[in-house]
Design brief:
Elements (H helix, E strand, L loop, with lengths): L26 E2 L11 H12 L10 E2 L4 H4 L4 E6 L8 H12 L3 E6 L7 H13 L6 E2 L27 E5 L2 E7 L3 H5 L15 H21 L9 H7 L6
Parallel strand pairs: 1-2, 3-4, 4-7
Antiparallel strand pairs: 5-6, 6-7
Helix pairs in contact: 1-6, 3-4
Length: about 240
Amino acid sequence: MGLGAALALPTTAAWAIGPTNKLTIPMLAIGQSWDQRPNGLRKMLQEVEKRTSIAVAPQKASVDLSDKRALFDYPMIFWTGQGNFAPLSQTQLDNLALYLSAGGLLIVDSAEATLGGAFEKAVKRELARAMPAKRFVEVPRSHVLYKSFYLIPEPVGRVAVSSRMEAIFGEDRAMVLLGVNDMLGAWSRDNLGQYEFDVFPGGQRQREMSYRLGINIVMYSMCLNYKEDQVHVPFILRRRKWKVD
C-alpha cells in the first residue's frame, strides 16, 4: 500500500506500509504545537487492530515534509496543532502536493476546538499554496467515509463544535480530510490507560463515536470507495447495527 510506485525516485526497493509492513500513522511535524496529543494515534491504532483485520505497528512516529522519501512510507498522515505557524518552504509544498496527488491521504485534526481557528486558517492557506487549483468542500453525508466500517451519523472528537468534515478531492478520492473536533484528544490515553482529556458534551458515547470515525478513516484510506458499491449496502445495514448504549 506504499506510494513509492507512483514516484520517479532513485531506488528499486518496493515500499509497503512503513518499514514493518504494518500500518503506522505518523504525525506531520510542523510548527510548535504538532505534538500536543502524542498518545492519540497509538491508542487509536490499537483499536483498529482489535476491531478490524488490519495489522498495525502502534508506535509513535513523525514525518517532516522536507523528507520526500520518508513521506512515501505512509499511506496516511495526521496533521494537528493550535495557532498559526510559519509558511512552508517551496520544497515542503512541492513534496506535500506530490504525496497527495500520488495517493496519500492527509487528515487535518485541529486541537483548537473552534470553527475558523488560527490553525485551520493556516492549514488552508498552505494547502492553497501547495494545490492552487483545489478547494475545500464539505464531505457529503452520503460519502463512503461515513460507512466504510461503521455507520457514522456525524463526525465528533473531544468536542463536537462542527457536524461536518471538509475535504479536498482529486476526482472521486479524498486527498485531504479536515475536522475541527480534536479526534486525537478523544483518543489520547496515558501509559496507565487513563484518558488524558474529557470529552464533551457527549461523554463516553461521543468518545466511542470518535473512535469509530477514526477507524472509518483508516478503512477509507486502505479501501477507498470499495464500500460505495451499492451491492454492499444491504449487507452493511443488516450486519452493522452500530448503536452505542
